[in-house]
Amino acid sequence: MVTITGLYFTNTSAVSFGNIDAQSFTVLSDSVITAVLGAGAGGYVVVVNPVGGGSAATDIFTHTGPVINSFTPVSGPGGTAITIKGTNFTGATSVSIGGIPVNSFTVDSAGGISAIVAPGSADLVQVSTPLGTGSLGSFNKTKITSFSPSQGQTGDTVSIRGYNFTTATAVTFGNVAAASFTLLGDTLIKAVVGNGNFGDVSVTATLFGTASQSYFLLY
Fold first, then answer.
1. Domain containing 44: what range?
2. Torsion over CA of 35, 41, 47 and 48, rounded to 10 degrees?
3. The domain that contains 162 carries what CATH number?
4. Which of 99, 96, 65, 67 is nearest to 82 (CA)?
């Protein structure tokens, strides 16, 4: 929602932002209009009334689409309450996970949304507003955020960090299975380097798929 102030707004017939018509507008008084942005809106603000077109030539409206910075929790079944943090969420028209709309959502602020996950939801979390769509992955998916050390010898132990590791069934280095691995929680695995273990580090979990990150060097 954008508030426009000026003069002679009575009987306004059109409002646009950079030649993109507002989705809707309300004339609150002769000097105030509120408008809902159309998709892609941005540029000179123009108000048209029977007297003629009025352009706020010195006022250029700029916009930024929604950006998702984080969400918690990172996994859960249908019915899970998820909190999405970011920017520019005002006016959100839809929230989805892996293309499946959430059961419900509430825009708590420009930087926060509360939503209820729909059954079968996984992968990208997306928030859409009239100004665009923001995405961040991945919900209900295995993800490696880091591992250390990044190089070593056979027999060394590598700490792999991420999330959704609980049902991990395999750890590989360049498609060669680790000599062994120990699951220390949903976010940490300790893997022992085996013969031929070099390349992308991958974790496969029964429920959440496979995640990879490069690159482990064997020396």
1. 2-61
2. -110
3. 2.60.40.10
4. 96
Domain total in the chain: 3
The pair of three-digit structure tokens given for residue 162, joined into one six-digit string: 């991420």
Distance (Å, rounded) from C-alpha 29 to C-alpha 185? 60
* 18 alpha carbon, distance to own chain's centre: 27
- B/e letters for 34-50, b = 16+ CB within 10 Å, e = fewer, are ebebbeebbeebbbebe
Contact 171, 189 (CB under 8 A): yes
- pLDDT tens-digit series, residues 168-195: 999 999 999 999 999 999 899 999 999 9
* Judgement on whether residues 200 and 148 belong to the same structural domain of the protein: yes
* Tens of pLDDT, residues 95-111: 999 999 999 999 999 89
